[in-house]
Design brief:
596 residues; alpha+beta; two-stranded antiparallel ribbon; GmrSD_N; DUF262 domain-containing protein
Length: 596
């Protein structure tokens, strides 16, 4: 049995489907990843009759209704979002979002004399040979006769027959054929998901979350289209507060919906720590409410899939949409969201740059929502969530097959309970060998995006450690203000001694310090600048350091996990120094974790 059918449809029909809602294009609400020149090239290919690739759709499965009849599913777009968005931008004139979530127009200009298309700019705008925008002509907003007359007025020496021929060809773009591959509606969700993933292994990679967004955007019966807006609008509010005015002015229906009331607090709120996108939003809400991790299962459940009978039932679809709605609302609940962010910050993870795994945050928020729903006391909830977050970062729990790991973790927590499962994870991954060898080895790196190093910085922020050679300046403040990272053995000093960049940029050679201290140390060897610091303390002159006693100096070295041997160290001791400091850093992390 064929898994698909192939047909040709004119561009005009395709755009009619979009306008009527027959086919859902949620990506119109999210940043458009093509640049304007690719839009130009698409229009040029259509004008010349070149193939532009296939649009792939899948009709939702027929769902068994309560009266026993079958519902006819609507089309879900599987592939071709960017091409359709490009067409709606260039031909319909619809605005698209750039990467900064600003709405922009993409104007494609046309030169009939040279049969060339280009992105409109000031030069073309001021040139009489260029038609500033193609969409009024293609959309019948202006007649061909009027378009030709206006062009000839601006270009009286042009060949009128040639101009007429080429403007007519321009108008015919809407009649050009685009290939449509429609997947058979009888295909099961797993097969469609596999097709979706294989299609998107090349070009602009889309995720199963895009599949879910297309799915819910195509649903009006259960309010899926409004859920899609809830997700998009909340994520946009985080980065663009001005978008609220657009909703008030242009989307009255959503403005008067409970979803808007649930998210409007973010129009004046802030989030520089988590900053979830639509994938994160969906993942947390789905995993929390459904206790599953694979988005393909969510598509199946929203379609009404009965996993036992393999049939599709309206009751399952209705219940799944309601569960998803509840999960999304719990995600955006101001109390839940802000308490979770305070919890994350309390671990010492005070900056987004210290958190390299977004899925560690996602699962931790999932766990937070679940434990609160299950009635755990707040203190217990915070303890388990903080430990899970740091543990998952340290072992890179979600760095590989994240969906499978998320699916396993939520199911194991449901079966065993969080206390027993967390203990199991700690015994499996955080044994003595990890703390004494594995973690120490993880710190042997020159990458500041290393999980172990970032957790070390979080530990320093958590205990409010003071910056190197500073009396009062805190490491937390320097990270927040993007302060200087200083080389304990200055890099110019080591470079002059023929040490490689990979070696002198080891994270065990890094400390946060004030800029003035960093400058005054320059390229002195540690034994040189530490001798000066000690002499200045004895003479009560604060220059390199603001520390005013040997006790304070000793405490400062301990807080920054710096071996006391630094007092006499030169380049001959550097590699031994790194080994000693990695051990101290690992011990700091272990003590910090056990306190959480």
């Amino acid at each position: 049995m064929s898994k698909y059918s192939v047909q040709q449809q004119p561009v005009e029909t395709l755009l009619t489907w979009v306008k009527s809602g027959d086919i859902a294009i949620p990506e119109i609400q999210r940043p458009f990843v093509w640049n304007a020149t690719r839009v130009r090239d698409l229009i040029d290919s259509l004008y010349k009759g070149f193939p532009v690739g296939y649009i792939i759709t899948w009709r939702n499965p027929d769902v068994k209704l309560k009266n026993g009849s079958l519902s006819a599913g609507r089309k879900v777009l599987i592939d071709g979002q960017q091409r359709i968005t490009a067409l709606t931008a260039a031909i319909v004139g619809q605005r698209v979002l750039n990467n900064n979530y600003k709405e922009i127009y993409i104007r494609i200009a046309f030169n009939p004399l040279e049969e060339k298309f280009d992105v409109l700019n000031k030069a073309y705008e001021n040139s009489p040979e260029w038609i500033n925008s193609i969409n009024p002509i293609i959309n019948d907003e202006i007649t061909i006769t009027k378009a030709i007359r206006e062009y000839m007025t601006q270009n009286p020496g042009a060949d009128e027959d040639l101009v007429e021929e080429r403007i007519e060809n321009l108008k015919r773009i809407k009649n050009k054929q685009v290939g449509i591959i429609e997947l058979d509606p009888s295909l099961d969700i797993d097969t469609v998901t596999e097709i979706f993933i294989r299609i998107n292994q090349k070009g602009v990679v889309l995720s199963n979350a895009d599949f879910v967004m297309s799915k819910i955007a195509a649903d009006e019966k259960h309010g899926g289209n409004k859920m899609r807006k809830l997700v998009d609008y909340f994520c946009r509010f985080i980065v663009d507060k001005d978008f609220n005015k657009h909703i008030i002015d242009n989307d009255k229906e959503f403005y008067n919906h409970e979803y808007y009331q649930a998210i409007k607090w973010m129009t004046t709120g802030s989030d520089d720590l988590y900053v979830p996108d639509y994938i994160d939003f969906l993942r947390v809400a789905y995993t929390y409410k459904f206790s599953r991790g694979k988005f393909s299962d969510l598509v199946a459940l929203l379609s009404g899939r009965n996993f036992e009978t393999r049939a599709y039932e309206d009751e399952i679809s209705e219940h799944s949409y309601q569960m998803l709605s509840d999960g999304l609302l719990d995600f955006v609940n101001q109390t839940n969201y802000q308490r979770f962010l305070m919890l994350v910050s309390s671990t010492g993870l005070i900056s987004e740059k210290l958190i390299s795994s977004k899925n560690s945050l996602n699962f931790s928020y999932t766990l937070y929502l679940k434990l609160r729903k299950d009635g755990f006391p707040e203190a217990e909830t915070q303890h388990y969530v903080k430990r899970w977050l740091i543990m998952s970062l340290l072992i890179g729990r979600y760095s590989g097959s994240s969906e499978s790991m998320i699916d396993e973790d939520i199911k194991q927590i449901n079966v065993k309970g969080i206390a027993a499962y967390l203990t199991q994870m700690e015994q499996t991954h955080l044994g003595q060998g990890f703390w004494e060898f594995g973690l120490v080895n993880d710190l042997e790196t020159s990458s500041i995006n290393n999980n172990a190093y970032n957790v070390y910085l979080a530990a320093q922020c958590n205990e409010n450690s003071t910056a190197f050679l500073a009396k009062s300046m805190k490491i937390r403040s320097l990270i927040e203000q993007r302060g200087d990272i200083h080389h304990l053995f200055p890099k110019k000093y080591l470079s002059a001694k023929n040490f490689s960049q990979k070696l002198y940029n080891q994270v065990a050679n890094f400390v946060y310090t004030e800029q003035s201290t960093n400058i005054k140390i320059g390229m002195m060897a540690p034994n040189q600048y530490m001798a000066k610091v000690k002499a200045q303390i004895d003479n009560r002159v604060l220059d390199i350091s603001t520390l005013d006693s040997e006790e304070a100096l000793h405490e400062n070295l301990l807080q920054n996990d710096i071996p006391l041997s630094i007092m006499d160290a030169d380049e001959s001791f550097y590699e031994e120094f790194l080994k000693e400091r990695r051990l101290l850093m690992a011990q700091k992390i272990k003590t910090y974790y056990e306190r959480l």
